[in-house]
Design brief:
This is Phytase-like domain-containing protein. It contains two helices and 21 strands. With 342 residues, the chain is mostly beta strands. It has a five-stranded mixed sheet, with no helix packed on it. A four-stranded antiparallel sheet has the order 1-21-20-19, with no helix packed on it. The radius of gyration is 19 Å and the shape is globular.
Amino acid sequence: MVMLATLVGWLAVLPAAAETIEFTIGDPRITESSGLATDAADSRYWTVNDSGDRGIAYALDDHGNTEGTLEFRAQPVDVEAVAFHRGRLYVADIGDNRARRDFVTVYFFDEAAPGAGPVSYKAYDFSYPDGPQDAETLLVDGDGRLFIVTKGTKAGIYAAPTDPSRQGVNTLERVGDAPPFVTDGTVLPDGRYALRTYVSVEIVDPASYQVVSRAATPAQRQGESITTTFDGGALLLGSEGKRSKVLRVDVPTSLVEVPTPSATPSPTPSDSPTASPTTSSPTPTAKASPTNGDPADAEDEPTDNAAGGGSPLSGTGTIAALGLAAVVAVVAGVVVVVIRKD
């Protein structure tokens, strides 16, 4: 209750972002849009479903209609994010609700475009220096460097090596703290990071990893995703659910000081790992390797394309965390509506 009361106070001082409906995702297959990415050159957006879907990304036009899909024969554990940079599409299999995965996997596709059949893929495997973490956010900066932002009350920003290897597992480096409960992020044209949480959009300086501006998010059923418009001048916020609406909001320009929550949720697998890596030097499995008949190129050998092991969403700790998230989302919606009415 203390946490809930604090969040209400937090939301009350945050200016609500003015929004318009940019488009509605109409594809009935897209029921848990967990990430958004912008391909400005081709006037296209990419999205992925949350865990439970196969290796697939959906290409959308500026009206939310599906142009096609990009399919690949991997076996993702928990896809949570998607990113696009200079013609390369990244699909991030980084979810780990129970904090049991020895490593997570980021698949990537050069010259990505919707097609008729499965495509070849490459992948990087990553492990955290401080044990398994749950994450829903992948960032790609202007130089093409990858960053994973974890989720929870002790969230962090983790940088990948500047030149990650496709042989073995790459160790991430924690370079900064992140706001709690980040569900997606994107990189702005000026290089700053835009991170969305259940209740706010936070703009982060990549030099200091400090929040420099902030605004409350509009009310959404389950706010999960964020990307930029084609011109980079505004942000788009997505939500899970059938026929989910994608909202357009301005990039926050001011920083509102908010109180730090005086209480934290009960420990969950995401915040307090309950299982340690099973090996000190994880070895990529063959789960993400092309199966027989996959049109993978000569570089895509099984040892290059690996996905971490994981567990499906379960456990009372996870349910409690999701319950808290739902309460926060509802409170956010109610408070934002009240603010607007005033």
